[in-house]
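Backbone geometry:

***
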Amino acid sequence: MRVIAGKFRSRRLLSVPGLDVRPTPDRLREALFNVLTPCIEDAVFVDAYAGSGAVGIEALSRGARQVILIEKSAAALKAIENNLAALGIGREAVMVRGNAASLISKYAADIVFLDPPYQQTKAYADCLEALAKGTCQLAIAQHESRLRLEDHYESLRKYRMLKQGDNSLSFFDRRPAADECP
């Protein structure tokens, strides 16, 4: 696994040992950040269910001001800690241990990426409903392509979906249609 672009481009990242964590494929991560390019600069980015931290680290690499990495697995947190240390970016990243669905709304973020284990389908609704009650302007959910997420979660509306094989990204926002960020 590697950082796709930005100031840490091509740097290798440690993955989490075992099969409990499903990393976001490089190609899907690249598609995600191609969409986010207009609004990632200086953003506060939450990577919920962070795993190795690759998505959050990619956000920092591409200009996010701060990343909050939420993860409950001790092994994953250790991988994140090692990845942050290897890149020297501990000051721009905050690691939070715990259940993302219950913590996600506690952070004032511009962009939230959530990628719960695919079998935890209820976690999508829990997270998106919590985000709808807060200040988050843009939420992206990575999910199995066969899973159909709702078109609205209170004030968040789905406006885009990218599909790559078995993986999909659903984009939710509360912004006016004329806004330049997706």
